[in-house]
């Protein structure tokens, strides 16, 4: 376990140095990522200036849901960006190198790139999450703190597993771009808002089929004690385990189909 | 002129080869649109009116914003940036065409797919959520004129941001920075009248509102008559100003071109 973690850190370190070669763009990228998250909240603020709540959710409560996605995306970009390079690696036959190394292939894939924009997302997402929770009515106790930490970690695990699982679609869909992963990632952006605003079909897609809502809406509902959504939200850690199991299974099924490139 | 027409025609066919990339780039815009439609649907669905927008007018406003967003979204900038980054731009510079005009011709040639796809999405949204108000013939004429200005204007914003690649050597960060600035100040997702006074004043002196808010407000009838003409004049004014500014930037930027041996 310790060896696994140490090697993962080394792997990321190597890619971090590669990512730092374009210095000006690096700073612009972090600032742009942070701004993108912040502007989403500016939009919410502009809308909420005219109305008190959205389907019973106050401004800060919606910000909390939104921030969960920003934060989860940030962690995904900074530490697990490699998932998004999987399509290219399969297409170019580069997976060969990873297969012969004595280290879990899935982890090698996930650690094979660093998205520095993640730093901006984590910063803004973290601040927004703090502000959102502070301005929402939460019954704080040692229990809720512990629950909050478990929910946050589960949410991040869910997003990470979903991006590995959906990107593994590239084992079946040929091509250098991660079509399936990217398309579903955009669907996941719908989970930045309370999912009760959507039609039933959309809710089923982001709540059950690809459970993005368990990485944002449901955990927040638990913390705010929102009736049925809160009860479902208690399943978040279970959903996290389920996502990891499914993502691993899909990845390994896909790996068996991998047939390298001709040269 | 003829050589630029040829470039446009070439691109009009070439876009079909890259349709997957295009559809993917539209996906992000599409889901932003869906989320905003859902939010406004809840807020305005039961007959409310906020800042002069009821549900049908807000929907029309967002759909026009989507159409404008889809224009010039076909990674013309990535193509340019890639060639600047690997030095291939040197070859483009040796060709007996004006670089800026050639890039514009390419964008014009590819625009038809953007319009067709955006209209298909709009038709889908209307079929799903019901009709949107349409302007009278006068409004429609003003709208068409205004939309005509969006194409060169958006091209110029995209073009200038791609030129930044001469300085930063990488494009991803600049690309995102542009997207976020445009999405805020163009009023494509949330009408500018919803923002605090200072944001509105800032937006009024920037070119971005001309890229989306102006045609959208004309379509829903919030801008009409002389006022609409004034805003359209501002759009074309920006086109001229940015065209000249882009020339200046280009002249400075090509001094920084790095060509790798090989």
Could you explain how this protein is built, in words?
The complex is a heterodimer of chains A (about 260) and B (about 260). Chain A is mostly helical and about 260 residues long. Chain A has 13 helices and no strands. Chain A has one domain. In chain A, helix 2 packs antiparallel against helix 3 and helix 2 packs parallel to helix 7. Chain A is globular and about 60 Å long. Chain B is mainly alpha-helical and about 260 residues long. Chain B has one domain. Chain B is about 75% helix and about 0% strand. The interface between A and B is large, with 38 and 37 residues. Chain A: It comes from Luedemannella flava. Chain A: Pfam families: ABC2_membrane_6. Chain A: This is ABC transporter permease.
Q: Give the SSE order of chain A as H and E letters.
A: HHHHHHHHHHHHH
Q: Please tell me the overall pLDDT of chain A.
A: 92
> How many domains comprise the coordinates of chain A?
1
Strand content of chain A: under 5%
How large is the count of helical segments of chain B? 12
Instruction: Give me the oligomer status.
Output: heterodimer
Number of strands of chain B: 0
Helical stretch tally of chain A: 13
Cα distance spanning the termini of chain B: 34 Å
Q: Specify the overall morphology of chain B.
A: globular
Got a strand count of chain A? Answer: 0
Query: Which parts of chain A are unreliable, with pLDDT below 50 for 5 consecutive residues or more?
Result: none
* Secondary-structure-derived class of chain B: mainly alpha
Protein name (chain B): ABC-2 family transporter protein
Pfam family, one (chain B): ABC2_membrane_6
Keywords (chain B): Membrane, Transmembrane, Transmembrane helix
InterPro entries (chain A): ABC-2_transporter-like
């Amino acid at each position: 376990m310790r060896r696994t973690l140490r090697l993962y850190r080394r792997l990321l370190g190597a890619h971090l140095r590669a990512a730092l070669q374009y210095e000006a763009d690096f700073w612009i990228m972090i600032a742009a990522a942070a701004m993108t998250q912040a502007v989403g909240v500016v939009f919410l603020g502009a809308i909420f200036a005219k109305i008190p709540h959205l389907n019973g959710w106050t401004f800060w409560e919606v910000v909390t849901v939104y921030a969960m996605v920003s934060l989860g995306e940030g962690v995904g970009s900074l530490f697990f960006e490699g998932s998004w390079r999987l399509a290219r690696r399969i297409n170019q036959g580069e997976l060969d190198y990873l297969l012969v190394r004595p280290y879990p292939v899935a982890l090698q894939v996930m650690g094979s790139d660093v998205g520095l924009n993640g730093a901006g997302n984590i910063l803004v997402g973290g601040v927004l999450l703090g502000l959102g929770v502070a301005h929402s009515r939460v019954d704080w106790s040692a229990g809720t703190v512990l629950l909050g930490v478990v929910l946050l970690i589960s949410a991040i695990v869910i997003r990470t597993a979903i991006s590995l699982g959906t990107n593994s679609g590239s084992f079946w869909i040929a091509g250098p771009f991660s079509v399936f992963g990217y398309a579903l990632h955009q669907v996941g952006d719908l989970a930045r808002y309370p999912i009760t605003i959507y039609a039933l079909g959309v809710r089923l897609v982001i709540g059950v089929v690809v459970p993005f809502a368990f990485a944002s809406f449901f955990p927040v509902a638990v913390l705010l004690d929102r009736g049925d959504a809160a009860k479902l939200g208690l399943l978040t850690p279970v959903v996290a385990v389920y996502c990891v199991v499914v993502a691993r299974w899909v990845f390994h099924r896909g790996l068996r189909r991998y047939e390298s490139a001709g040269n | 002129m003829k050589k630029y027409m040829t470039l446009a025609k070439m691109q009009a066919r070439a876009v079909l080869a890259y349709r997957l990339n295009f559809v993917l780039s539209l996906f992000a815009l599409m889901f932003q649109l869906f989320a905003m439609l859902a939010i406004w649907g809840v807020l305005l669905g039961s007959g409310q009116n906020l800042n002069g927008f009821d549900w049908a007018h807000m929907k029309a406003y967002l759909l026009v914003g989507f159409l404008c967003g889809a224009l010039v979204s076909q990674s013309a900038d990535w193509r340019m940036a890639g060639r600047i980054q690997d030095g291939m731009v040197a070859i483009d510079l040796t060709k007996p065409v004006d670089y800026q005009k050639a890039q514009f011709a390419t964008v014009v040639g590819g625009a038809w797919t953007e319009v067709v796809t955006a209209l298909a999405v709009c038709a889908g949204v209307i079929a799903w959520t019901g009709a949107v108000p349409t302007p009278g013939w006068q409004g429609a004429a003003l709208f068409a004129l205004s939309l005509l200005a969006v194409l060169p204007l958006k091209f110029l914003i995209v073009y200038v941001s791609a030129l930044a690649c001469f300085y930063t050597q990488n494009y991803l960060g600049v690309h995102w920075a542009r997207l976020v600035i445009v999405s805020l100040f163009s009023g494509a997702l949330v009408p500018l009248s919803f923002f605090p006074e200072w944001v509105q004043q800032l937006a009024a002196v920037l070119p971005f509102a001309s890229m989306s808010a102006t045609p959208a407000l004309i379509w829903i009838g919030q801008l009409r008559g002389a006022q609409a003409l004034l805003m359209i004049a501002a759009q074309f004014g920006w086109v001229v100003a940015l065209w000249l500014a882009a020339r200046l930037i280009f002249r400075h930027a090509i001094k920084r071109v790095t060509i790798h041996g090989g």
